[in-house]
Structures are given as C-alpha cells and as structure tokens.
Amino acid sequence: MNENKKKAVIASLTDDVSEIEQLADSLNHCIVETFIQHRELPDVNSYFGFGKVEEIKEFIDNHYENVDLVIVDGELKPSQWFTLEKKLNVEVYDRVRLILAIFKERAERKEARLQVKLAELQYEKPFVRELIHRARSGEHPGFMAGGEYQVDDYFEMIKKQIKKIRESLEKIRDEREVHRRQRHTSGFYLISLAGYTNAGKSSLMNLLSGEEVKAEGRLFSTLSTTTRKIYKTNLPILLTDTVGFIQNLPTEIIDAFHSTLEEIEVADVILLVADVSEKSEIVERKLKISLDELVGIGATSPVIIVLNKIDLPSGENLDEIIESLQKLGLTNNRKVIPISVKNRKNIDLLLNAIYELLPQLAKIKMRMPINEKTQSFVSWIYEKAYISEISYKDCVTLSVECNTKIKDKIVTKCRNFGGFVIK
Question: How far apart are CA 41 and CA 231, in angstroms?
C-alpha cells in the first residue's frame, strides 16, 4: 500500500457508493472499509444512528493501520459534523467537502482558484458559526478548531474574504462578457460542451479544435473555461469546455462558478456529452442530472446529446440505450448523435447537426472587381463566414453564408471595394 495515501473509511445511508469511491480515489485516498446503514432520513444529531457510529469508532480504534479520514456520502449539518468529529476523533469529510478538496487540487488558473476559495469559504461559514455557538456555550470547539477568539476572528476573516473574492470575480466576469460580445459581433458562433464529469468533453474538444487541452481520465480534470476555434468547419465557430456536472452539485460550487457556467447559458448550441460505455441505468441517471443542471443554470439553447465512447463495450446494445432514453423523455426535441472520439466515428454527423441548429444564417451573393483589395476582402470573409461558391472571370462572384450579426458589415465592405450585392 502506498504510504502517501490517506487511509479513509466511507460511511453511507445507501448501498451505491461507487461515485463517492471515485471521488475519494481521485484524491488518492485508500478506502480501507465501508459502512452502510440503511435508513430513509439521517439521524438529526450524528447523521448515522448511535450504534453505527459506535461501530465505526470501534473499527478506527482497533484497526491495525491508522485511519486518517471518515468520508460521509451525504451532506452534513454543522452540528452533525461536530458530533462525528468529536466522537470519532478523526477528520470527517462530507460529500461537499470532498468535492471542494478535489476542486482545490485541480484549480490552476487564477479565476478557478478564486472560485474554489469562494466555494470553500461559503461552505465553512455555517460550520464556523456552529463552533462559535459551542464555544460560547462553554463546550470545547472541537477536534479541528482552536479557542473561542480564534474562531470569532476566523469568521470575520471569512466574511471579508468572500466580499473581496466576489469583487475580483465580478471584474473577471465583466471582462469575459466584453470578449463574448466582441466574438458575437465578429461573426463567431458559440458552442458549449457540457455533461457529467469524465464523459470525454475535453477529448472531444481536442478532436474538433485540433489542439491539446488537458484531457485526463479522472473526475473534474477541467475547472476553467477553455475556448478554441473548431477547425473542421468552414464557419467561424468557437467551442468552450466547462466544468463537469455531478449528482447534487453543491450550491456553493454553482454559486462560485456562476461566471464559468454562464458560458453554457449564452451558447448558441450546447453539446451535452454522455459516456455511453456505462450501464444503461447509469447513462440515464447521469444524463438526467446533466439536463436538470442545464435547467438550473437557465440554459435555453438547442441541445445535442452526444453519446460518446461507442467504441467501448457497454454490455448493452446502443440502440436499446437510445430507446430507453427516448422512453424516459430525455431526448425529446433533441438530436442524438452517437460518436467515438477515440476512433473519430460520426464526427461529421455531429458537425452537420451543429450546423443545422445554429441561428439562422444570412445568405449573400456578391460581385466585385478583381484587384488586390478584393483578394484581401475574400481572405477576410474566409475567416469570418462560409464561402459556398466563388468564381473568377471578368469579376469575382461569390456566395456567402454568415452570421446575421456581420451581414451588414460584409455588404458595406463589398460596396466600399466597388462591388455590389446580387441578392
């Protein structure tokens, strides 16, 4: 066993602990035991019943290797967290705190680091309040805390930091909005990648853009937005990769990453990527969660459901999975494109589906004299629009499809160069 790994115990109210195990593994934690207590509602005092807490404590006390951490597959109230840490005498993470720890490790850019810090501070506030309450009641603040005055000071520091970080993020958000407007007015279409974490969004972005952004087979490898131009189409289309979704995505993260998730909300088309190599019920659950998240952030743009990893055996027929998704209503009024990024299968079908869903294209047919300025103008159009037909005889005749936002600009340039619009 790797000595650098933290040894952790998982405790859950349900049998399905696969996702919390993946989250723990992504932080290089070693799970030494799992405790399950079947109950519909958590215990109000300690999340688990007294007997189960005693069972976990006995395991920790008697285990031949030290247990560093107890991971609760749920969201703890501050009083429950305090009770568990005091009783078990080890660090206790709930699901939210575990996800925040992953985000903290993955954050590389300034904006992502600020967003993670904001989410952490918002998460900590009610816990610090609980420690203040305990300290003022004459109770020792707990296993992880100091004295009353340190806790009071820390709470005030949290409030000041939150205000400062929000101001910094607002400036970054304003800058992003300016860039977004410039792209729109320059004729670019905006496509956003969305979907459950580790579905293959970054790999698809690499394939469509011809560039290399970080693509790793682990949860939340992408936290910052990354925007690249799609090189496999004649239209100026920008593709943005965003943070992945997960079941019960903590409200602290949704709030802190609002400006990042906004890239999905303002997209012309959303590519919702799902890993179809998993079992049908898992694909269904993750796709439903992702669609609910899109509704939650206010996204109303057309959605293409991209079923990725069809090259991998799922143990189930792809047609049956699609039929199941249809019966559940998850594909209603949405195009479904099965693809394999690894084998580059059906990528042209995906690009055609994107093209068909873009906001209405303006069509222009122009005629211009042949000269140096005209050639420069044609080169400019190739960057900003799609030239469907061009001929050089006595003059240059070209048919153009473009974003309606730059139609007037193209027509004006054409006339300035001595040309005219045929239709």
Answer: 51
DSSP string covering 277-336, please? TS-HHHHHHHHHHHHHHHHHTT--S-EEEEEE-TTS--SS-HHHHHHHHHHTTTTTT-EE
Look at residue 388 and give its three-state secondary structure.
strand
Structure tokens at 104: 């903290």
Q: Which pair of structure tokens corresponds to residue 372?
A: 């140096």
Contacts of 245 (CB under 8 A, 6+ apart): 194, 195, 196, 197, 289, 290, 293
Could you tell me which of 52, 81, 54 has the C-alpha nearest to residue 69?
81
Q: What is the pLDDT of residues 101-116, one digit of tens each?
A: 888 887 777 887 888 8
Reduced to 3 states (helix: H, G, I; strand: E, B; else coil), residue 94 is: strand
Cα–Cα distance measured from residue 215 to residue 218, given in angstroms and rounded to the nearest whole number: 9
Q: Name the amino acid, one letter, at 75.
A: E
CA distance 90 to 108: 29
Cα–Cα distance measured from residue 239 to residue 189, given in angstroms and rounded to the nearest whole number: 9
Largest pairwise CA distance in the chain: 94
- Separation between Cα atoms, residue 417 and residue 407, nearest integer Å: 16
Pair of tokens at residue 397: 């005749």
Burial class (CB in 10 A: 0-12, 13-18, 19+), 308: buried
Exposed e or buried b for every residue in 375-410, given b needs 16+ CB within 10 A? eebbeebeebbbeeeeeeeeebbbbbbbbebbbeeb
CA triple 95-289-169, angle to 5 deg: 65
54-99 per-position pLDDT tens digit: 999 999 988 757 888 999 999 999 999 989 998 998 999 999 999 8
For residue 214, give the nearest of 250, 175, 241 by alpha carbon. Answer: 241
Instruction: Please name which of 148, 99, 155 lies closest in space to residue 127, comparing C-alpha atoms.
Output: 155
Where does residue 11 rank: exposed (0-12), middle (13-18), buried (19+ CB within 10 A)?
buried
Read off the pTM: 0.75
Minimal CA–CA distance to 70: which of 79, 81, 78?
81
**Measured distance CA(406)–CA(385) in Å, rounded:** 9
* Alpha carbons 344 and 176: distance in angstroms, whole number: 32
